[in-house]
Amino acid sequence: MLGGVKPRALGGAAIACIIALNPAGAFAKQLKVGLLVPYSGVYAALGKEIDEGFMLAIEEAGIAGSLNVVREDTEVKPPVGLAKAHKLILEDQVDAITGIVSSGVLAAVRDYIDSEKVPLIVANAGNDEITGARCSKYITRVSFSNAQVNRPMGKWMHDRGIKKVYTIAPDYAAGHQDMDAFGEAFKAAGGEIVGSDYTPFGKTQDFGPYLTKAKAANPDAIYVFYAGSEAISFVKQYDSLGIKKSIPLYASGFLTSALYVNAEGPAAEGVIAGLHYVPTIDTPENKAFVADFKAKTGRAPSEYAVQGYDAGRSLALAIKGGATDRESIAAALPKTSYTGPRGPLKIDPATNNIVQNIYVYDTVAGGSGLTQKIIATIPNVADAPNGCKM
Ligand code: PHB
To answer: How many CB atoms lie within 10 A of CB 111?
Structure first.
C-alpha cells in the first residue's frame, strides 16, 4: 500500500500513475481492492460475471484508473478462500476486498476480515449468519441474504394453492439456509414439507436417485436451490428423467439465472423462481445497465453482474465521498442508497445487509432464446432481526 508515501517524493510519471483527483480537488492515493471470487470450480462463471460487473461500475464512475484491482481465485474452497484473503491483506495490503461467492467461503474468511478491520463488500455469498449473529461493521453485503431470497417464496407459493412441497439443495451452508428459510415461511403459511434431500456439493453428477425419491413423495411441487454448473445439470435431468411432465419445479432464482439459462435450454421453460434481479426489469435504470453491460460483454447481465456492479458502485461512492483508507471505506459503505438496475436499494444499518425487491419470474421462450417474465414483485424485502449486534 502506498499509504505512507508522500506523492512529492516521487517522480512525475510515478505521481501520474498513483494519484487520482477526487471530486473535492484534493490528491488521493491510489487504492487497492482485492477481487476474491472463484475463477475455477462449480461457480467459476459466477466469479467472472461479478468481475465484469465490478469493472463496469468503476469504469462508469471514472475511478478504474485510480484503483489497483488484485484478483484471487477461491476455487469455491473455504481454506483456499481464507489463504487468499491472508495474501490480499498481508502481502498486497489491500484497502478493501469484494467478491466471495460461496456461503462456505464467506464463513471461513469472516473472523479474519473482522480482526484485520478490512472492509469487505460481499458481492454474492448469502450466508445469513454474516449479517446475523456473526455480523461485522467491516462487512457490508450488496448481494442478498439466503433467507431474503427464499423466505418470500414460501408464502407466495402457498397463496397460489400449493400445499405440499419436496425440497432439494446442495449439502452446504447456502443449501441448508435456503431450504430452512423457504420451509419455515411455507409452513407458517399452512403448507407441508413432505420430504427433503441434500446432495453432495460440487460432486453430484447424477440427480436421478434424488428425483426418484422426490417423485415418490407425491408433492404438489418441488422447490430447489442450485447455481452454476450444478443448476445446468439439475434442470436438464429434471426434464430428461420425465419429472417435469408431472411435478412443477419452483426455485431460488439462481437455478435459471440469465447467465446460464440458455445452456439449460427448453428444460428451463416454465420454472418459477424468486430472485432480486432479472435483466427484464422494465425501468430506465435497468435498461441503461443492460445496454452498457451488453456493449461491454456482448450478453445480457445476470444477478451476478448486477451484484458486482453494485459492489463497484458502492465502493466508488465511498471513495468519491472522501473515504481514503480501510476504516473510512468501512464506515461509508453501509450508507449506500440509490435506485439501480434492480430497483431501489439501501443497506440496513442494523445488519449491513441490503434491502431490495424480490421478483418472482417465469422462464419463457423469447425472441433469441429464453427470457424472464416477471409475474410478481415483493417490494423492499429486509431481513427480520437476526441476532446482529454491530
Ligand atoms: C452461496 O453459497 O451463498 C451462493 C452461491 C451461489 C448462488 C447463491 C448463493 O448463486
So the answer is: 12
Burial class (CB in 10 A: 0-12, 13-18, 19+), 189: middle
343-348 and 337-340 strand pairing: antiparallel
Counting ligand 1 atoms within 8 A of each CB, the residue from 146, 150, 257 with the most, and so the one to mutate, is: 146
pLDDT tens across 61-79, in order?
A: 999 999 999 999 999 999 9
Report the Cα 291 to chain-centroid distance in Å: 21
Please give the distance, rounded to the nearest whole angstrom, from the Cα atom of residue 126 to the centre of ligand 1.
6
Question: Which among 148, 147, 182 is positioned nearest to 165, based on CA atoms?
Answer: 182
Q: Cβ(333) to ligand 1 under 6 A?
A: no
pLDDT, one tens digit per residue, over 142-182 is 999 999 999 999 999 999 999 999 999 999 999 999 999 99
Q: Give the distance from CA 351 to its chain's centroid.
A: 17
Burial of 57 (0-12, 13-18, 19+ CB in 10 A): buried
Nearest to 360 by CA among 127, 143, 142, 149: 149
Closest CA to 138 of 115, 114, 109, 116: 114
Name the residue with the closest Cα to ligand 1, atom 6: 227
C-alpha pair distances (Å), 117 with each of 137, 330, 350: 9, 8, 19
Instruction: Please tell me whether the overall predicted TM-score, pTM, comes out greater than 0.85 for this model.
Output: yes
Check residue 246 and report its DSSP letter.
T
